[in-house]
Every structure is written in structure tokens, then in C-alpha cells.
Design goal:
The complex is a heterodimer of chains A (362) and B (386). With 362 residues, chain A is of the alpha/beta class. Chain A contains 11 helices and 14 strands. With 386 residues, chain B is of the alpha/beta class. The chains are: A alpha/beta (362), B alpha/beta (386).
């Protein structure tokens, strides 16, 4: 009887100690949305690598599918929303949008649910993954809620369509402020506003004015303006001249993919979405690759680098650096690479190699 | 350079004088070439500034000077000034009238001050819409002798030039909320698609790719894509496919060799043509052409003003000179066009005299001199074959 009591007491004590340790190490909860296609396997890779790096994160896995809520509006499952509202940080794999599904894309739903107004893509050349462009180191910050993607279109008369590009003072100011704060917090030197105000005088003009106003409050960061076409022209000739770029939705869409192409494509590009109310969702922006799903062939680099971005956002810079270094070293070494990176290894082998390096770096 | 200036001042004096045909003002008289045939064509040349002869204007003078002196091209140039700093639209309207009269023009880019209110419209855009120059064509090719990251690029970009995002229809609903209208019409989409496929067939091209964002702009770009598909059905010998604009730019910087002919609405055309110009060596190399039913205007493909390098004798004259070759082709003067084109390419590849934008040390005038020498070396066409 007494031994049972002792056992019970010991068990309670260990639980208390465990929670104290968790509290001491500030175990943060992160909502993970594995996604479709290769999503689950690359998410598993990331979780394994984070375990190897002893990152103080506990994962809460949720799935997002569009469901019809009360009032007939499409929404994400309430459990997913609840989890994200509580944890404030999310990591997301690729989601498929079936054509003619009757509901808007999942990415759009997530964006609207959490008011993800800023899409951030740091594009840094990966040593070891050779592209015609070296020394790329820039960040594209794209306004993600309005602009050309407002979805407001009308057929005026048969054969004449108008699409409305919406620019508001509020959204422009918000994205400009985020861009300058990002530049300041990440030791970046300059912010360039990308626009076409020579043609779209009022809309891009408003965007530009807000950027100029916000720039006044950030005198430590250099502010320049450049036409979209000039940026494109110069980007493909000398991308090193750019630092942080801020722009409305469509230009951001085009430029962020252009920059992803400079460093090697969507398979190696991280991305983060910042929302109002402190929510941030980091994601890989490539597709679901259904043709290789479940075959252990996927490349988890994009999701991993997005997770590293997430760690930096959470302030866990040490862990971020460790994992990033392990990942880049593995790619630079060229011994264990997935097929899209030019190698022959499986996803699990690539993951194991990164885990090994992470542990060696300890 | 001073020779050119004196020609221009002479031309200003001669301005009121009307030519024999009575219809056009012949401004630049061939002074040296005595064996030239009578001018069959008069071309309007738009300069950018009023008091300052900007680089482009000088080049055109030099080109003309060079052409007349060495090549005896039967073209007269009527110079029209458009001052970008003036707020009245009179000058650009005069320019439009001149082009309507002559049918063909060679143009420099007119700067738009985007800090002025919306009532001050882009002069370049006004010109394009007034003359209904619906097709902007840019042929991007890897040029010999120019160092670039990508090789073997040969893309023809056909961009709708009058509507889309460039409709200049904007309004502020309430303070702080602005709407800008992007207009896509069936008529113009069919027209540009038809132009693209016709060009592809004439030039023996195999594939036309439509660039769009119809997954997001379902109605607008959806209509454009639909029109392209309809036109494609009439050209079964040409493969038609489509690509979303963000993927297109990504593909362009990694594998530009996969593209053949591309057709797209206005803004995507702006982006894609600048990306392609950058890929083949920069804004100083690529000529562009704007075609309408009745008029044609030739300029540099990327429409830069080159403000920061103006009047320094460092600009690359290649794009403008190649644009004038396109003009000569349009006028049917193919021999002259290919002679000058060959000379330009030889300067680029053999003499390797490059301007600063290509990493060289040559000045604008040195490059033009070199081209003129190459033309002279080219031989007979310069004096016998007229």
C-alpha cells in the first residue's frame, strides 16, 4: 500500500516537474497543417528535424477542408481556427484546390479568416544549388488582401469585362509599416516601393503616398521607389541591387515568383504570411505534386526553410541558425540530395542527413 | 554631335518650306549624297525635350546623317518635339497629327511625372491609343558578342497595347478608397490573338503561348484566354498553350529557351518584355515596334527615358538603330535594313566595341562611327545599288 502511495506521489511529482520544465523552456504550441499530396511526408520530415534540434515546440496537427458554415458561407473547420487563434503560429504544407469544387481556394479562405495581409518571401541564393544567379539576397513583401486580386469583376455588356483593382489607404499604410518594421528588425538597409504610378496614377499613386508617409517614421531605413518594369529589367540583370521590396498584390505575385526562380524555384523558397491579431502562417508555396505523393521522393527544403523563418519570427534564432546551416550544408555537400536537387536520395534519407548534421552541430 | 545640331537648326529654318509633293515638310536634306533617289517616304521623328537635344534625338540625327551619307536611304525625317514638362496636350496632339500624315514614326520615350494629378495622362499612352497601335511587338534574341547568363533565347512577345490595365480609368469612391478599372474586350483580344497567330505563321514559328492570370481574374483574363483559344482553332499548324504570368516569369529566368511566341494583355506584356530584355543584355539592345491598322511607331522595346545617362555620350545606340531597321523593313526597304543591321551586329560581335551598359568603355559616338565604318565596308549598296 505504501509502495503504491510512493509510486503515485512519484508519478505526480514527475508530472509537475515535466510541466515546470515545459514552462521554464516556454514550449510553444504551433499549429501544423500537413496539407495534401506530398504535404504529410514533408511535414513529417520537418517534425523529425525539429526533434533532432530539440526545438521547444509542440505541434498541434489540424486539417483544413472547406466546410459550409451557418448562413451558407464557406469556412475552415472550427477546430483549425480555434487552434490557430490560440497558438498564433502556423506551419502549412501545400493545399489542393479542386477545380469546380464550388468553394474558393483553401489558401484564399485561410487568408480571409486570419486577415493575412502580408506575404513575405526572403529569396537567398542557396550555396550548392547552382542557378545562373548568385548572391541573391532580397525580400519581397506583398500586400495580400486587395489590389488586383479583389475578385470584383463584371461583364459590362457582352464582350466587355472590367476587373476592379482596389487600393485603400488603410491596407497600403499597413503593408508599408510592416515592410519598414521588417527591414528594421532584420537589419536590412533599404525598402523599395514597386509601382506603376505613371499609368495607374490614382491607385498606385495612393500606395506610393502611403509608403512615403511611413518612410518618414523610419529614417534609419533608406526608401526608394521604382517602376515595376524597371525592377523586372534590373532584377534579371543584377539582383544584388535589391534589398526589401514592397508592393501591391499583383506585382508582388509576379515579382515573388520571379525571385523564387532566381534562386532555384518554388521547391527551395520559404514563405510567410503575417496577419492582423498577431497570427502568422508559414508555408511552402509549391504544389501538392500528386504524381510523387507517398513515394518518399519529395523535397522538404521549402517547408523546412519556411519553418526556419517561423523560428526566427518566434525569436528562436539559435535553433533557426542550426537547422538552416544543417540544411544548406547538406545541399552544398551534394552527397544526399532529392531528385529535384539533382540527386538520387529519398526524402527520408535527406531528412536523416539533416538530422545528423543538426545533432553534430550541438 | 555638333554636325547633327547644325543640321537640326538648319531644319528649323527650313521648316516653313514645303516639299515638291506639297504634302510633307522635308526637314533633313541629304547634303552629301548626290546619287540618292528622290525620297519616297517621310517619317516622323519624336524628340523628347525642347531645348536640349537628348541622346535619342542626336542618335536619330546621326542615324539619319549616317544613313544619308553612307547609305543614301530614301527617307526624309520630319522632327516633332514633345516637351514632357508641359501640361498642355497640344504638343502630343501635333505629334499624332504628324504621324497620321506620315504613317510611320520613330520615337523616344516621353517621361511621365507620376506626381502630377491624374488629369495629366501619360503622353506615350495617349499616342498609342489615339493611333490605335494595338500590337506591341518585341523580338528578343540572344545577340552575338553580348555576355548574358542565358543563351539561345529567341522569343517574340506580342502585347496588347491599348486596353487592359492601361485604360487610365480610375476613381476615388470615398477618400482613401481607389478603384482602377482593367478593361478586357472581346474585340481587342481577338484582334491581338489574330495578329499573334498571323505573325507566328508568317515567321515560321511553331508555338504561341498565351500569358494570363485567369485563375484569379476569371472574367477578365478568362475572356482573353477564351479569345486566344478561338483564334488558335483556326491555326491548326501552330501549337497553342497557356501559362500563368507568375509561373511565366519564373520559367523565363530559369529556362527561357522554351518560349517561342508569347501573346498577352497589356500589363503582363510590360513585365514579360522587360524581363526578356534584361535576359538578352539590357534595354540598350532591344528594339520594339507598335503596329496599328494604319500606322506604325518604332522605339526601344523597354521604353526607358535614360534620364540618368542623357547627354553623356554613354548610351547604347543599338536599340534605337535596330528600331530604325525595323522601320526600314516596314517601309519595304529591306536591303538597307539588313545592311545596317549586319553592320550593327558586326560591331557588337567582331569589333567588340561595347558601351558601358554591356561592360565596355565605348562612347555612343564611337559605336555609331564603328557601325558606319562597317556599313562602308559592306560595299556596293552604299553608292551603286540605288
Amino acid at each position: 500500500m505504501s509502495s503504491m502511495m510512493i509510486l503515485l506521489v512519484l508519478k505526480c511529482l514527475s508530472q509537475i516537474i515535466f510541466y515546470c520544465i515545459c514552462f521554464a523552456f516556454q514550449m510553444q504550441t504551433v499549429t501544423i497543417i500537413p496539407g495534401d499530396g506530398i504535404g504529410p511526408e514533408i511535414s513529417t520530415s520537418v517534425i523529425k528535424i525539429f526533434e533532432a534540434a530539440k526545438v521547444p515546440i509542440q505541434w498541434e496537427e489540424r486539417n483544413v477542408t472547406a466546410i459550409k458554415g451557418p448562413g451558407g458561407k464557406w469556412m475552415i473547420p472550427p477546430e483549425a481556427k480555434e487552434s490557430m487563434d490560440k497558438s498564433k503560429i502556423g506551419l502549412k504544407g501545400p493545399l489542393k484546390t479542386p477545380i469546380a469544387a464550388g468553394h474558393p481556394s483553401m489558401n484564399l479562405l485561410l487568408r480571409k479568416t486570419f486577415d493575412l495581409y502580408a506575404n513575405v518571401r526572403p529569396c537567398v541564393s542557396i550555396e550548392g544549388y547552382k542557378t545562373p544567379y548568385t548572391d541573391v539576397d532580397l525580400v519581397t513583401i506583398r500586400e495580400n488582401t486587395e489590389g488586383e486580386y479583389s475578385g470584383i469583376e463584371h461583364v459590362i455588356v457582352d464582350g466587355v469585362v472590367q476587373s476592379i483593382k482596389l487600393i485603400t489607404e488603410e491596407a497600403s499604410r499597413r503593408i508599408a509599416e510592416y515592410a519598414f518594421e521588417y527591414a528594421r528588425n532584420n537589419q536590412r538597409n533599404s525598402v523599395t516601393a514597386v509601382h506603376k504610378a505613371n499609368i495607374m496614377r490614382m491607385s498606385d499613386g495612393l500606395f506610393l503616398r502611403k509608403c512615403r508617409e511611413v518612410a518618414e517614421n523610419f529614417k534609419d531605413v533608406k526608401f526608394t521607389e521604382m517602376y515595376l518594369d524597371t525592377v523586372c529589367l534590373n532584377m534579371v540583370q543584377d539582383p544584388t541591387q535589391f534589398d526589401v521590396l514592397v508592393m501591391p498584390n499583383l506585382y508582388g505575385d509576379i515579382l515573388s515568383d520571379l525571385c523564387a526562380g532566381l534562386i532555384g524555384g518554388l521547391g527551395v523558397t520559404p514563405s510567410g504570411n503575417i496577419g492582423a491579431n498577431g497570427v502568422a502562417i508559414f508555408e511552402s508555396v509549391h504544389g501538392t505534386a500528386p504524381d510523387i505523393a507517398g513515394m518518399d521522393l519529395a523535397n522538404p527544403t521549402a517547408l523546412l526553410l519556411s519553418a526556419v523563418m517561423m523560428l526566427r519570427h518566434m525569436g528562436l534564432h539559435g535553433h533557426a541558425k542550426k537547422i538552416e546551416t544543417a540544411c544548406f550544408d547538406t545541399i552544398r555537400d551534394k552527397k544526399v540530395l532529392t531528385k529535384d536537387l539533382g540527386g538520387n536520395s529519398k526524402c527520408s534519407e535527406f531528412t536523416a542527413e539533416i538530422c545528423r548534421r543538426v545533432q553534430d552541430l550541438d | 554631335m555638333s554636325a547633327a545640331r547644325s543640321v537640326l537648326s538648319l531644319s528649323k529654318i527650313l521648316q516653313p518650306w514645303t516639299g515638291l509633293k506639297g504634302s510633307t515638310v522635308s526637314v533633313m536634306r541629304p547634303v552629301m549624297c548626290t546619287r540618292r533617289e528622290k525620297s519616297s517616304y517621310t517619317v516622323s521623328v519624336l524628340l523628347k525635350g525642347r531645348d536640349v537635344l537628348l541622346v535619342l534625338g542626336d542618335l536619330i540625327c546621326l542615324t539619319d546623317w549616317g544613313l544619308h551619307r553612307f547609305c543614301c536611304v530614301p527617307v526624309d525625317f520630319e522632327v516633332v518635339n514633345v516637351d514632357s514638362s508641359l501640361t498642355s496636350e497640344d504638343e502630343i496632339n501635333n505629334a499624332v497629327t504628324a504621324i497620321r500624315r506620315n504613317g510611320v514614326a520613330l520615337k523616344g520615350n516621353i517621361e511621365t511625372n507620376h506626381n502630377l494629378p491624374p488629369s495629366h495622362k501619360s503622353r506615350n499612352n495617349l499616342l498609342r491609343t489615339s493611333l490605335d497601335l494595338y500590337a506591341n511587338v518585341m523580338h528578343c534574341q540572344t545577340l552575338p558578342g553580348v555576355q548574358t547568363r542565358h543563351k539561345d533565347i529567341d522569343i517574340i512577345i506580342i502585347r496588347e497595347n491599348t486596353e487592359g490595365e492601361y485604360s487610365s480609368l480610375e476613381h476615388e469612391n470615398v477618400p482613401g478608397v481607389v478603384e482602377s478599372l482593367k478593361i478586357i474586350t472581346r474585340v481587342n483580344s481577338l484582334r491581338i490573338a489574330e495578329y499573334a497567330f498571323r505573325q507566328a505563321r508568317e515567321k515560321g514559328r511553331r508555338r504561341v503561348t498565351a500569358v494570363h492570370k485567369a485563375n484569379i481574374m476569371k472574367l477578365g483574363d478568362g475572356l482573353f484566354l477564351q479569345c486566344c483559344k478561338e483564334v488558335a482553332a483556326g491555326y491548326p499548324d501552330i501549337t497553342f498553350d497557356n501559362m500563368i504570368v507568375d509561373n511565366t516569369t519564373m520559367q523565363l529566368v530559369s529556362k527561357p529557351q522554351q518560349f517561342d511566341v508569347m501573346v498577352m494583355p497589356n500589363l503582363y506584356g510590360n513585365v514579360v518584355s522587360n524581363v526578356c530584355a534584361g535576359l538578352v543584355g539590357g534595354p540598350g539592345l532591344v528594339p520594339g515596334a507598335n503596329y496599328g491598322k494604319d500606322y506604325a511607331v518604332f522605339e526601344t522595346a523597354t521604353r526607358n527615358t535614360g534620364k540618368s545617362i542623357a547627354n553623356k555620350n554613354i548610351a547604347n545606340p543599338t536599340a534605337t538603330l535596330l528600331a530604325s531597321c525595323l522601320m526600314l523593313d516596314h517601309l519595304g526597304l529591306h536591303d538597307y535594313a539588313s545592311m545596317i543591321r549586319k553592320a550593327i551586329l558586326r560591331t557588337l560581335s567582331e569589333t567588340r566595341l561595347h558601351t558601358a551598359d554591356l561592360g565596355g568603355q565605348g562612347t555612343t559616338s564611337e559605336v555609331v562611327q564603328s557601325i558606319m565604318k562597317e556599313v562602308q565596308k559592306g560595299g556596293p549598296l552604299t553608292s551603286e545599288k540605288i
